[in-house]
Design brief:
Layout lengths: L1 H4 L20 H7 L1 H4 L4 E3 L11 E6 L1 E10 L5 E2 H4 L6 H14 L12 H8 L5 H8 L9 H9 L3 E8 L10 E2 L2 E10 L5 H15 L4 E8 L2 E2 L5 H14 L4 E5 L5 H9 L3 E3 L18 H20 L1
Parallel strand pairs: 1-11, 2-10
Antiparallel strand pairs: 2-9, 3-7, 3-8, 4-6, 5-7
Helix pairs in contact: 2-11, 10-12
Amino acid sequence: FVAERKIPIEVALLWETEEEIGSPNFREVVRAAADDLRCDGVIVSDTIWPSEHSPAISTALRGSLQVVLRLRTGDKDVHSGLTGGVARNPVRELARVATAIDDAGFWKEGVEPPAPEEVTGYAAAGFDPEYFKRAHALHKLETEVPLEMLLRLWTRPTWEVHGLAGGYQGPGVKTVVPHAAELKASFRLVAGQDPGAIGRRLTAFVAELAPDVEVEVTGFLGPYTGTTEGPIHDALLAGMERAFGARPVLVREGGSIGAVPILAEELGVSVHFLALSLPDHGYHAPNEYFDWRQGRGGIEAYVHVFERLAAG
């Protein structure tokens, strides 16, 4: 399109294929191609609207810190009738450690709260808790107050346990005491927090609480806060409004994109977001999809954005 219309801007497409494993090689690639990637700004379309009727521009991403906790207390699973009450149970102990981390304060410190005008914008974002529940197939939530949900999703850190393995996992009950267990978990972190520092605090916290537990930090991504000023941001607002018929709301993103802070740091430019996905597209779920209404609108939005930027 840019070539056909002879729009006097230069557009480069960059595909990043390591997002789900933390983008471990992306910084090296960007540095090697720095001359070819020199630009005035970056636009990413990997963020999400708060509802199907509310076009949105994300202005910030949460970071993340992935960890595995391991505990081994023997060489084999043993009979609880013969050893229960004496043998240590690593599944139970890791569950206690996870609860203690949840209650701890070290990963909740350093948070930069959103400005009052941001919170006002969230309240006008058209967020519907019932749509959210349907889109993610959730039956019960920790809160169903719309603004509180958005503040938790976008502006506050979280600690999530993704899996706890150990002992007997088959049908029914087998009365063993496990000899080893592994807990997989992660933090989502926000502006003002350093994943490296949180990882060190976690290691020290667990070492004091449960010295036999091994802590492995398997990866981390920094949070990112973009700008809401400048010609690219203004072009995104105008382009999305023309494409979707409504002024986009400014939101944050609960997820993390490792490539974004790397691009900002290595290229020295702001990274902007032209969000196109919807909650019911099913990120990371079976049958994840992307519908043509959003695809067509996204193409149109980019056309208007490029024309606006070329016009100055």
